[in-house]
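dude i think i finally got it to work??
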Amino acid sequence: MWRYRLAWVTEVVWAIASPEGRAKLRWVQPGGRAESISPATFLAAAKEAATYADHGTGRNVTVGRARLGRAVSRSERTMTRFWRAANALGFSRTRAEGRYLTTAERRAAYRRHGNRQLRMAAQRDLIGLRRRGFVHLPSGGGLKAHEALSEMDKHQRASAQEGAPAPRSHSLDKRLQNQPATSRPGRVIWPREMFEFARDVRTLLPWLRDAHPASIARVLHRAGVTPERWAARDLARRLEQELGFRANAARFGQQSDRPARAFRFMDPNEVSDPLGYTRWLLAEYIDPAEPTLTEDRAEYRADQVQQAVDQLDSADADEARRRERRAERDARLAEQFARREEARAERERIAAEAAQIQAIRAESDAAIARRRPSSQS
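look at this
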């Protein structure tokens, strides 16, 4: 599953080793300002970006510039120059530009992974030489392809080439062909997650500094320590905690028959068998049946996310109830206003009728007075 990545990185190495490719790493901005990126930085960023692509097609690279820069110890601006150079060389194309998320998308992202995400990275595709029609390749000299390959690349390539029925050609075209991966019996081609997990463990446990990640991955796998259940830093922290607990127990008279080094991380110079020492630590202090620190943290974060979602739902329900009460109050006020208007109209009608009756009575009294004879006659 790593063939496209290996081929793409190899093509990048050969391309920038040529004068034409190196010229693409220097350009002038529209404002007249010159910019460039060094070949070493370009290769490091290319190898890291390839790990985020679909392994069979090279598509869907959605890593942000900040994360990519942290991985290769460079700034976001340098990563912007990297993608500009990669586009100029024809090794990448942008399918969708990065943008800020809408409010609805931010809420959906928070419900999904519990983090507050504000932006979405650009979506890019990694393009190989065969698709671009870029045929100029240096015949020799310059950068070597193997210099740009990481330990993971070498592990996958060596594992895939072992047990081949016939020696393979060393030409570039043969290396870029999709050959079936084979391996000798007992050799495991570790997935990327397990290999990266083993490499992180190696950086945290100093006596493993000279061990190959594939060998560390084998020890971890046999001990039931996998990246699905553990983070490398949590594994080191759990070992330190267990060693501290055992040291306290020995201090108060328990387990006194054990040597002092059993309660601390041994110095790398003291360890004659790093893998065996690691295997002993895992068997002694890690119980596969117990929940891990990573799982506890994930459960805690899931509870926090659920509480946040419940709070949002509760807030939505409270708002709905407030709107319902407000609507009921408005309906009551409207009904009261309508009744007051009806009463006022009724009073005006009665007053008009009373004035009409009064006018009729006055007219009748006047008529009677005119017909009555005068008392002096």
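The radius of gyration is 40 Å.
im so relieved honestly
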